[in-house]
Amino acid sequence: MDTFIDKIAQKRNAQEMIRANMTAEAVKMEQMENQMKEYDALMQEIRQVNLKTAANVSELQDALKECISRLEAMQAQDALKECISRLEAMQAQEGPETLSSQELAQIREVMEEKFKQSDDFLHRENVKVYRNVQAAVAEELSKQTEELKKSQIENRGSRAVLPIAVLILIGVIADILIKLFGIVIPM
After folding, report:
1. Alpha-carbon distance 2 to 5, whole Å?
2. How far is the C-alpha of 140 from the C-alpha of 146, rounded, in Å?
3. Most buried by CB count within 10 Å: which residue of 46, 76, 79, 126?
4. CA distance 103 to 107
5. pTM greater than 0.70 (yes/no)
6. Which residue, 65, 59, 128, is CA-closest to 73?
7. What residues have CB less than 8 Å from 66, skipping those under 6 apart?
8. Cα end-to-end distance, the chain, whole Å
9. pLDDT of 59-72, one tens digit each?
10. Cβ atoms within 10 Å, residue 45
11. DSSP secondary structure code for residue 186 in this structure
């Protein structure tokens, strides 16, 4: 009879262990589901940041295109300088009947003044673009830093999120740099 009671006790202990294991597995599954929901939320935040970054890149591309067009205008001014040189050469060859040296000097002064104004304007515009880009990058970086700090505070229990977020952030920055170098290098 004692062996019968021992067998019943062993079966009961085994069933209790199975129930305890199933309960532990259920709790672990629930934790994993919660962690997956947190990962999904972080991925959504990263996607939003990526979209904002893409918008900033498009603004930067527009600014760079404008700078390129202004540089092309400067090249046109170089062509005007060459034209003035040709006029001077023609003046030297043809004599005083075509243009007087006074008229030629006045044209040269006007052109030099226009070139100076153009250079000043381009410098001011380039400084504006640089400052705007710098401010946009600094603002976006501070926002991303704050978002990462908030997510770290919220997810102190799950340490695996931080390396993933950092890797994704590095990937986004690398993508931006590749796009920028793709625009800047052809210039």
Report:
1. 5
2. 10
3. 46
4. 6
5. no
6. 65
7. 125, 129
8. 95
9. 777 777 777 777 77
10. 16
11. T
